[in-house]
Amino acid sequence: MSAKGVLKGYLLPGLPHILLCPEKNQNWMQVRKAFDRVREEIQTSGADILIIYSTYWPSILGHQIQADPSPEWVHVDEQFHDLGSIPYKFKMDATFAEVLKQKSTERGLHARTINYQGFPIDTGSVVALKLLNPNNKIPAVIVSSNIYSDRAETIVFGKAMADAIEETGKKAVILVISSLSNRLFTKEFNYAEDKIHSLKDQEWNDKFLELLSEGRLEDCSQLSRQFHREARIKKVTNFKPFWWLAAVMGQSNAYSGEVYAYAPLLGTGAAVAGLTPGVEKASDLEYDEENVEKYSGDRHVLDISTSIPKPTQDMPEMGPEYE
């Protein structure tokens, strides 16, 4: 079943080119037009809140939640400062942020709210809010992506978000800011000749686009570890956006899906895709990983000192053939 109160979920790219210079590549312009379609859907959806999980906001200790009611600053992307400045003033739901912090703590997570002038909101969130909510019609909340959290912790954080949505009675649209494959070209090249970094990356992107178009969110979640090994730079612990999104929306394939646009963006896979709850077409598929409710730490399942049981009268000591 899908989470109560979630109207729609979207996957969106976060590099600043879509906002600042989409005209430099015809495929980038198609992605920009897809943002325009998503904006129209959001503005007519009846949503009370936009919830953003941005892989462009890394956190080290626990999970951070933007709680400044009206953050205002001038953003310059740390990698692409040559593209120029992005002034912004956003509207955040500080009350919801506090509820989310409480729900996260109740599920065993370390979480804190962020509220001070000049806190650097990440590029992905800035791009999304500037393009999808330009008049601040709908208040937002932004959460970080902990670079060390693995599947269990990420799923529990998603469930804490679902708890907060249900307790506040909000009608929410979920925005996940992430590329698919994430290998960037590191040498200067002609923007008009952009392409996916490798054929292997393209093939894995195609697989995930197929799953998304069929509304198979939990299948994307179950394949996330493999996708990370095959199509992404290993700078964080696994590929977690679909773990989190499935935990918030409901861990199933019961969605209708649509891919609005897909294009290479400096070698990465930039996809705009949407998932709408309520379609039971694939709900009978099986999943091979547990459904975690509360975070109690890593299990260290590969630690030989804890993973091999001690011998008992009914179970003789293991010999070399088991090593």
Could you explain how this protein is built, in words?
The protein has 323 residues and is α/β, with parallel strands linked by helices. The protein has one domain (6-290): Protocatechuate 4,5-dioxygenase, Chain B (3-Layer(aba) Sandwich). Helix content is 33%, strand content 21%. It has ten helices and ten strands. The chain has helices at 17-20, 26-43, 94-106, 123-132, 151-168, 199-213, 217-222, 224-231, 241-249, 304-307, and strands spanning 6-12, 49-59, 63-66, 72-75, 86-89, 111-114, 140-146, 172-177, 255-265, 268-277. The strands form three sheets. Strands 7-2-8-1-10-9 form a six-stranded mixed sheet, with helices on both faces. A hairpin with a 2-residue loop joins strand 9 (255-265) and strand 10 (268-277). Helix 5 (151-168) runs parallel beside helix 9 (241-249). The protein is globular.
Strand order of the largest sheet: 7-2-8-1-10-9
Number of discrete domains: 1
Q: Which segments are poorly predicted (pLDDT under 50) over 5 or more consecutive residues?
A: 304-323
Radius of gyration in whole Å, from Cα? 20 Å
Kindly, what is the distance between the CA atoms of the first and last residues, rounded to a whole number of angstroms? Answer: 42 Å
Query: Could you state the CATH homologous superfamily?
Result: LigB-like
**What share of residues is helical?**
25-40%
Question: Largest sheet at a glance?
Answer: 6 strands, mixed
Mean pLDDT: 89
Structural class: alpha/beta
State the CATH topology.
Protocatechuate 4,5-dioxygenase, Chain B
- Please, how many helices? 10
Overall body shape: globular
CATH level-two architecture: 3-Layer(aba) Sandwich
